[in-house]
């Protein structure tokens, strides 16, 4: 049996030779730490299940996999004490699809008050989903250090019909506490908001792997539950985003049927390999997940050491593998820190501006420690050449 130890995650995948978006977007001299997937080989059980299915040589239309759905339900009950009714589950090809369907729902079902609250900064597809579906987003600024959420009683909810939450938070890496989530639930109830919680990063809590709080688990009544939906997926946690399998969990039957009215037509059904990968991940992926989190903790320590040496503030990374670095103090003469690091260090990062935080960069730590070391060393050298350093 494979041991999912540091040696396992240390082995490079050589993604530059394949079809990886992350590794082929820039020149071969660039270390890519941008788009959110991992440079780690998937666990043996996922590879074996996909191989078995591929070898059947039969790729016709597949029905939704009840085995994969059951594995997802069991996983959430056993790990997080979250009981999901199978009726609530709407399979989805991806979570970005669900974000867009939620915004469309607000637009169509609540035309007089379709504005949606989102946080700032937040994963950029929250912003684009609202714009693309023709509704207005209202940004609730998060403070990157300390307690992130402002006092919600100061928010004016007139004209707003929903809130899209990122739980845990990308890009701040914040793990919402039960108390914080309770505050958001109460705010939603007081203002009759529909609440969508993107929980794709729920399996990536670094220090306490079972501590993410599914928003739906915290509800106290049926009425409260019925204004909520959650989006979960095995994709980020087990590094299978290319397989395209996710789930919208929607307790209210009317909202569910409105949300899913284009399933199988405009919205494609889940790819058969997505089902196979999801089932194997939820059933057998736990040793890999725990080993991967230990490896990420080592990479996080490296990142924290580098940021401290550079004198740049770093958000406390509690969940996700995406570090958020504050570069606003650098004298870059108008250049964004993302462009600066790409040009001078040949390291590709995500620009904080796309999440609503110009002057910041997001650094993907889910790579081999040796690769991260090279990137951090190059970034350090680039910073050392600046006048301020
Ligand atoms: C918060 C969040 N939601 C959704 C996604 C992407 O989801 P999918 O690939 O399933 O559409 C990401 C990817 O980074 C993400 O960080």
Describe this entry's structure for a reader.
It contains 13 helices and 12 strands. The protein is of the alpha/beta class and 389 residues long. It has 2 domains: 6-44 and 286-383, Alpha-Beta Complex (Aspartate Aminotransferase, domain 1), CATH 3.90.1150; 58-284, 3-Layer(aba) Sandwich (Aspartate Aminotransferase, domain 2), CATH 3.40.640. The strands form 3 sheets. The protein has a 7-stranded mixed β-sheet with strand order 2-8-7-6-5-3-4, covered by helices on one side. Strands 9-12-11 form a 3-stranded antiparallel β-sheet, with helices on one face. Helix 3 (44-55) packs antiparallel against helix 10 (272-284), helix 5 (95-109) runs parallel beside helix 6 and helix 11 (286-310) runs parallel beside helix 13 (369-384). The longest helix is centred in the last third of the chain and has 25 residues, at 286-310. The chain starts with 5 loop residues before the first helix and ends in a 5-residue tail after the last helix. The mean pLDDT is 96. Pyridoxal-5'-phosphate (PLP) binds next to helix 5.
Features:
single chain; 389 residues; alpha/beta; Aspartate Aminotransferase, domain 1; Aspartate Aminotransferase, domain 2; seven-stranded mixed β-sheet; three-stranded antiparallel β-sheet; 13 helices; binds pyridoxal-5'-phosphate
Summary, kept brief:
It contains 13 helices and twelve strands. It is 38% helix and 13% strand. Strands 2-8-7-6-5-3-4 form a seven-stranded mixed beta sheet, covered by helices on one side. It has a three-stranded antiparallel beta sheet with strand order 9-12-11, with helices on one face. It has a two-stranded parallel sheet with strand order 1-10.
């Amino acid at each position: 049996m494979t041991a999912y130890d540091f040696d396992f995650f240390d082995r490079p995948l050589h993604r530059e030779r394949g079809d990886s978006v992350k590794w082929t977007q820039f020149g071969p001299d660039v270390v890519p730490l941008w788009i959110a997937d991992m440079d780690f080989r998937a666990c043996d059980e996922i590879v074996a299940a996909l191989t078995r299915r591929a070898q059947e040589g039969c790729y016709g239309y597949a029905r939704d996999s009840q085995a994969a759905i059951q594995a997802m339900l069991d996983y959430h009950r056993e790990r997080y004490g979250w009981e999901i009714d199978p009726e609530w589950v709407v399979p989805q090809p991806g979570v970005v699809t669900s974000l867009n369907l939620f915004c469309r729902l607000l637009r169509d079902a609540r035309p007089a008050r379709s504005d949606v609250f989102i946080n700032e900064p937040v994963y950029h597809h929250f912003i684009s989903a609202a714009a693309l579906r023709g509704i207005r987003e209202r940004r609730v600024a998060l403070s990157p250090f300390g307690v992130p959420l402002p006092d919600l009683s100061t928010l004016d909810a007139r004209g707003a019909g929903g809130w899209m939450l990122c739980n845990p938070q990308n890009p701040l890496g914040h793990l919402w506490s039960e108390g914080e989530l309770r505050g958001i639930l109460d705010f939603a109830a007081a203002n009759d908001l529909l609440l969508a919680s993107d929980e794709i990063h729920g399996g990536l809590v670094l220090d306490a792997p079972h501590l993410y709080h599914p928003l739906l688990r915290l509800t106290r009544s049926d009425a409260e539950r019925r204004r909520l939906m959650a989006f979960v997926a095995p994709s980020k946690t087990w590094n299978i985003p290319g397989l395209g399998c996710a789930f919208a969990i929607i307790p209210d039957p009317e909202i569910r049927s409105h949300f899913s009215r284009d399933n199988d037509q405009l919205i494609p059904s889940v790819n058969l390999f997505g089902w196979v990968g999801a089932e194997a991940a939820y059933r057998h992926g736990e040793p890999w997940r725990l080993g991967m989190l230990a490896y990420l903790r080592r990479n996080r320590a490296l990142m924290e050491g580098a940021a401290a040496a550079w004198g740049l503030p770093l958000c406390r990374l509690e969940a996700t593998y995406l570090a958020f670095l504050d570069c606003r103090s650098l004298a870059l003469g108008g250049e964004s820190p993302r462009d600066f690091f790409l040009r001078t260090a040949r390291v590709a990062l995500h620009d904080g501006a796309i999440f609503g935080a110009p002057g910041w960069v997001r650094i993907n730590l889910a790579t081999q420690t040796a690769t991260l070391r090279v990137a951090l060393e190059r970034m350090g050298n680039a910073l050392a050449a600046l006048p301020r350093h």
